[in-house]
Design a protein that fits this description.
FAD/NAD(P)-binding domain, seven-stranded mixed beta sheet, four-stranded parallel beta sheet, 12 helices, 23 strands, binds flavin-adenine dinucleotide, FAD, FAD/NAD-bd_sf, NADH dehydrogenase activity, oxidoreductase, flavoprotein
Length: 430
């Protein structure tokens, strides 16, 4: 009987593990099933450009059914596992839950926003982890510009033009940089507004932004952002977000309708309910072959796992480049397991990283060399255009970038799509 391999999560880990198996499995060796709540994989490093409208949301994703050939796909979410019976329970979009029997189970569940107990944060904040959040933020910022341009109330105008991001890691820096770049670019279409009225504030608890990149690159990024008018508050905390006012630990009070919380992530909550070993950060404990500690039939990698870092010691950082390499090794180890051979450890040396800061601006490190400005921006784009799976997506991404060069950012606020039944409901209520 073929091995039954169930892969839960269709992100970097899930997709690249499945692709490795798809390529390596011989006829009849195994049946592979991928489970994901959406029928696409969000290509997360491109989310800042979705937020700025540089990329169409549909172009920054990989359609799972199009790339998973010969692999079953189920649109649903894992709700539990029965380790004795080797069964994973999946909640479908509709109907009763479905039980999937497995011989080998892969958990690539990723991460979600990590909230801190800040009064008002849960009600007022928005994260920046998903395609929906990125697309929403773009519409939200454009919506705030419309509010500011239309109102005659100076307080409302000031509130609408104040954008606060909490968390100065690369996600927060990329998000604020891309969105502010878009806002500056579209401002010429708003003769009622002046760029000096906009306030973009980046709040970071540590004494510098971009804590995971080298200090001189972080300084370059900070200099660029400050020159563009972004107010960086290091060594500062958000203390509360109640009654429309954001209170910072340096005493500043900001009336604002935009609070983006990018101050860290944690594994999906389901991870802690699976009865598997987790570390103090809630990540699954795996060995260097990516097997969950003490289990011969459960594997994990990526943001939901504490993977030993072969390069620096400790555990691997939560990056896409690590998740892809881990998934490739995980796929190879599943092939070896199916064939009764010894599995191999994960080995990887990071080749560099980039932080986008808006059009023609980025900082990065490639093979130990620091790059910035247009060169870093071009290298970053070339890297992602060639890495995103399928030519179909490469062409669409390149197309969006090419169109954006002469025409700049689009100013259309499509926020109304978030209430598609509004007009129909109103008609029905008459
Ligand atoms: C805005 C942003 C920018 C980033 N930029 C970079 C960058 O420039 N460079 C870089 O290297 N890294 C970057 N990262 C980090 C990188 O995207 C992650 O490290 C990577 O996505 C981790 O892969 P993963 O497979 O572990 O998780 P993900 O890619 O998040 O995939 C997890 C999948 O599991 C699914 N899932 C969740 N719960 C369930 C459930 N109960 N059942 C089934 N499926 C479930 C999710 O829907 C998702 O599809 C960025 C991240 C963000 C948010």
């Amino acid at each position: 009987m073929p091995h039954r391999i169930v892969i839960v999560g269709g992100g970097y880990v899930g997709l690249y593990t499945a692709l490795r198996l798809q390529k390596g499995l011989r006829q009849g060796e195994a049946e592979v099933t991928v489970v994901n709540p959406e029928n696409f994989m969000a290509y997360r490093p491109l989310l800042p450009e979705v937020a700025s409208g540089t990329l169409e949301p549909r172009h920054a994703v990989v359609p799972l059914r199009a790339v998973l050939r010969g692999t079953h796909f189920i649109c649903g979410a894992l709700t539990g596992i029965d380790s004795e019976r080797r069964v994973a329970t999946v909640q479908l979009e509709a109907g009763p839950p479905r039980e999937l029997e497995y011989d080998q189970l892969v958990l690539g569940l990723g991460a979600t926003s990590k909230l801190l107990p800040v009064p008002g944060l849960a009600e007022r904040g928005i994260g920046f982890n998903s395609l929906a959040e990125a697309a929403h933020l773009r519409d939200h910022v454009l919506g705030q510009l419309e509010i500011a341009a239309a109102t005659t109330d100076p307080e409302l105008r000031r509130c609408a033009l104040t954008f606060v991001f909490v968390g100065g890691g690369y996600t927060g820096v990329e998000a604020i940089a891309e969105l502010q770049d878009m806002a500056l670019d579209v401002l010429e279409g708003y003769p009622e507004l002046d760029r000096t009225e906009m306030r973009w504030i980046l709040v970071e608890a540590m004494d510098r932004i971009l804590g995971t990149v080298s200090e001189d690159l972080a300084d370059l990024a900070a200099t660029e952002l400050t020159a563009r008018g972004i107010d960086i508050r290091t060594g500062t905390l958000l203390e509360s977000a109640e009654n429309g006012v954001l209170q910072l630990s340096d005493g500043t009070k900001l009336a604002s309708d935009t609070l983006v919380w990018v101050a860290g992530t944690r594994p999906q909550s389901i991870v802690g309910r699976l009865g598997l070993p987790v570390d103090e950060r809630g990540r699954l404990v795996v060995d260097d072959t990516l097997r969950v500690h003490g289990r011969s039939d459960v594997w994990s990698a990526g943001d939901c796992a504490a993977v030993p870092d072969p390069e620096q010691g400790g555990t691997c950082p939560p990056t896409a480049q690590h998740a892809v390499r881990q998934a490739q090794q995980l796929g190879d180890n599943l092939l070896l397991t199916v064939r009764g051979q010894a599995v191999k450890p994960f080995r990887y040396n990071s080749r560099g990283e980039f932080v986008t800061l808006g059009k023609n601006k980025a900082v990065g490190e490639v093979l130990g060399r620091k790059v910035n400005g247009t060169l870093a921006w071009t290298l970053r784009r070339a890297y992602y255009a060639t890495q995103i799976p399928t030519w179909n997506r490469t062409v669409r991404v390149l197309g969006d970038w090419a169109v954006g060069m002469p025409f700049g950012h689009d100013v259309v606020d499509f926020g109304s799509r978030e209430q598609p039944r509004g007009a129909f409901q109103e008609a029905a209520d008459r």
